[in-house]
Amino acid sequence: xxxxxxxxxxxxxxxxxxxxxxxxxxxxxxxxxxxxxxxxxxxxxxxxxxxxxxxxxxxxxxxxxxxxxxxxxxxxxxxxxxxxxxxxxxxxxxxxxxxxxxxxxxxxxxxxxxxxxxxxxxxxxxxxxxxxxxxxxxxxxxxxxxxxxxxxxxxxxxxxxxxxxxxxxxxxxxxxxxxxxxxxxxxxxxxxxxxxxxxxxxxxxxxxxxxxxxxxxxxxxxxxxxxxxxxxxxxxxxxxxxxxxxxxxxxxxxxxxxxxxxxxxxxxxxxxxxxxxxxxxxxxxxxxxxxxxxxxxxxxxxxxxxxxxxxxxxxxxxxxxxxxxxxxxxxxxxxxxxxxxxxxxxxxx
Length: 349
Known about the structure:
Number of helices: 10
Number of strands: 11
Radius of gyration: 19 Å
Mean pLDDT: 81
Helix content: 10-25%
Low-confidence stretches: 284-299, 303-323, 328-349
């Protein structure tokens, strides 16, 4: 669907999704990872990309999508809210934001990456992302050295001795470091694949519900990050429009054996001007089925489901900018290059 420079079109992505659906039974395809996106310009109900991912979901494929890297965008004085990219704005798919591991094994010091796009979605105002996962300064397979992307990110290549015992420090050809929600999404796709390897009968909705319910629900009031290139400082609030149902917890997901029923469509956020609060709207007791021990959304979203006037909802979609990694003990490079569409609403993340 994407070329050597990480660019593509709506039609090429839709074609790839449709092909995966066609080959599902032949190759036992169960998970689709979409580390891409472009601005939301219409409702998910009519967006061709959203319609494609919904078709895959209903065909029994778990669809995991990167949220986008627009969390620092304050063009409209919205502190990065409302910047989720399409098709991550679709309520059925699992939309993933990025966390920073702080280069430690301890999860308790991990922080939200300030560039991670936030909900609610433009136009439909769906609560997104659904959860977050490690996505900052991760090691990934490198493209061919002659490609434009390899030349642009030459400084991000990793010495061989960092991933191979006895490797040559001077050799930097196989892996490089990248940052962004495009790196976080595959972590969740891998988690989904692990759950399916244990129980192949799980549906996409059961996978989504289990991952969201078991996610670690720690929400800090404010996190800060620094752009290592410009030195600019950024901050973000860890609320459900930034972290969704929480931080991916694969161990907890494996231990959970509950089976939900019905569609796990992400709820809609509705602003009440009288009380200046936001409430979640959706038939949640039906959506989550047996997994909900009460009729409230607290089982999935944690206790903090109401948000005050600091969360703006009158938001518009906009294009995505290239963003460098958050400044951690080990700094990384920018996310995958922006992807172009043929229609005017360009940029795939």
